[in-house]
## 1
Amino acid sequence: MFPSQMRKGILEGCILAIISLQETYGYEISRQLQQYGFGEIAEGTIYPLLLRLEKQQYITAAYRQSEIGPKRKYYQITEAGKREMYTFFQNFAQLSQSIARLSKQIGGDFHASGNQSASGTK
């Protein structure tokens, strides 16, 4: 699993991406992040990020009646949010390439499983 500080740095862009797929609400965003492999993200992490994205006008929100239970706040991405999302993914791709070059330079062959081959140790 990702260290929490590393994960926090990328959550805003990933939340924008999830919202760009369809209008959704906070708990569902958390569930989808978990399905993508981000682990369990606490509501105390998700909702402040959603509020920040809303204040930056990257998303809009509207309360809607839920089929089960109280009203839910549904989020939708704005045009500014789409631009920010694309910028995030461009920057992340560049960062990933830089990290891959550095990893190769030190002789690492790192995998998502946390294993490393080559001369280094985990």
## 2
Amino acid sequence: MIFLSIAIDLFGDGLMIGTSLTIAPHLGVVLTSGRVVAHIPEGFITNSLRQLKLILFNYLVLINTEVLKR
């Protein structure tokens, strides 16, 4: 669900930057630089959630293999 919301956010950013570049190139550059700074924390969150998902998956596999051994 989080990946879908990020994809929608990036699509909206693309529309905003594309429209601003059509109006004035300088405005597009300003908006692009602002969006790059804004997306840095979003990347950290996405990466953390991906690692957490991998850790949880490995834990569940470990539990299942322990149950099957019994």
